Amino acid sequence: MERVYNFSAGPATLPESVLLKIQEECLDVNGSGMSVMEMSHRSFHFESILNKTKQDLMDCLSIPTNYEVLFLQGGASLQFTMIPMNLLKKSKSLDLIHTGVWSQKALEEAKHFGTVNIIATGESSNFREIPTINTDNQSNADYLHYVSNNTIYCTQFHSIPIEHPTLVCDMSSDICSKPIDVSKYGLIFAGAQKNLGIAGLTIVIIRKDLLDTKDLNLPSMLDYAVYAKNNSLYNTPSSFAIYVSGLVLDWIKEVGGLEEIARINQEKANLLYDAIDNSKLFFNNISKQDRSTMNVMFSTLNDELDERFIKFALTYKCDGIKGHRLTKGCRASIYNAMSIEGVKTLIQCMNDFEAQFLKENTHV
Fold first, then answer.
1. Residue 97: half-sphere exposure toward Cβ, Cα within 13 Å
2. Partners of 144 in the beta sheet?
3. 138 pLDDT band (50/70/90 cuts)?
4. What are phi and psi of 111, to 5 degrees?
5. Quick one: which of 37, 63, 332 has its CA closest to 198?
6. What is the mean predicted confidence (pLDDT) over 44-69?
7. Helix count (H) and strand count (E) of the chain?
8. Which tens digit of pLDDT belongs to each residue from 142-163?
9. d(CA 108, CA 309)
10. Residue 208: CB atoms within 10 Å
């Protein structure tokens, strides 16, 4: 069967070489005589996989030694609860930059445990641009929360918006898409299913001093310190998802590391945004300096015509470009594993659809 170009926002496309490696090792991984899906998580074989994946992630992101990497479950959404439970220790308050749906979800969960102080919001622009941050709005908060890339509204912080002693970042849709300075953060979390693997695995990178939770009386399954003490093996982890992330990290290394990944991602984004900006039919209304390199929104500004294009795109093997229900239109997610060839194919599809439309509507 011929594979499509999968522009879905997540779970997202995987490198073909990773899929072939999974296929090759499905019955026997690393000479163990069994699949990772049936392997005991307490076995030497699986602990080797977990430890290698952990070290490869630390190497990939140049994670300092005073940080711990945790492999958790519950999706990134569970972190909206775990983070305030573990980090609200002194002021019982947090600062938050509000940029859309995912910061709203974090806000709603955090309110169960403390006070949320919104220091900037993009609501006035309907989240079409990154809000200006007024440092006067900062409080004596235990931590500051923001979302680095917004999959729904397709905006992105291209640098750290503001420094804080405990900066918390939701990097679910752009982790490992470019180099970052982990030392600037207290905690980074991300679902793996966009740039680092498949659904079922949540990665948490946490500064070790934040693991002091002994006075919080937390349930064991919601305590970062418990997972750190047990090397993410307090209970059965998402073993297959960890294995796949390990293969994706191998692929990133083979490509040339995060510097090269970032260059390719920028090239893809530039190609697609240039095509939209030069189009007579398609539009993008995101502030140019805030456009995401991961998720590209575009539309004909006509719902019926958008639907026609989405169906037309399937004939070019371009799948998953239907926009989110809140924003409608179209959205192409061009995560790490999306090839330049796939982006060029989508652009050709857009050009052909536009030419056909203009021919049919000569008055346009």
1. 27
2. 95, 167
3. confident
4. -65, -20
5. 37
6. 97
7. 9, 13
8. 999 999 999 999 999 999 999 9
9. 36
10. 14
CB contact burial 139-160 (16+ within 10 A = b; e otherwise): eebbbbbbbbbbbbbbbbbeee
Question: Contact 213/84 with Cβ under 8 angstroms?
Answer: no
Partnered with residue 202 across adjacent β-strands are 72, 191
Tokens of 280: 């007579």
Any idea how long the chain is?
A: 364
Model pLDDT for residues 182-225, shown as the tens digit of each residue = 999 999 999 999 999 999 999 999 999 999 999 999 999 999 99
Are 268 and 340 in contact, with CB atoms under 8 Å apart?
yes
pLDDT tens digits, residue range 298-342?
999 899 999 999 999 999 999 999 999 999 999 999 999 999 999
C-alpha 297/C-alpha 284 separation (Å) is: 6
What residues are annotated to the active site?
102, 170, 194
Q: How far apart are CA 135 and CA 19, in angstroms?
A: 46
Residue 364 has pLDDT above 60, yes or no: no
**pLDDT value for 2:** 85
Task: Give backbone dihedrals phi and psi of 331, rounded to 5 degrees, phi first.
Answer: -150, 125
Distance CA 271, CA 155 (A): 17
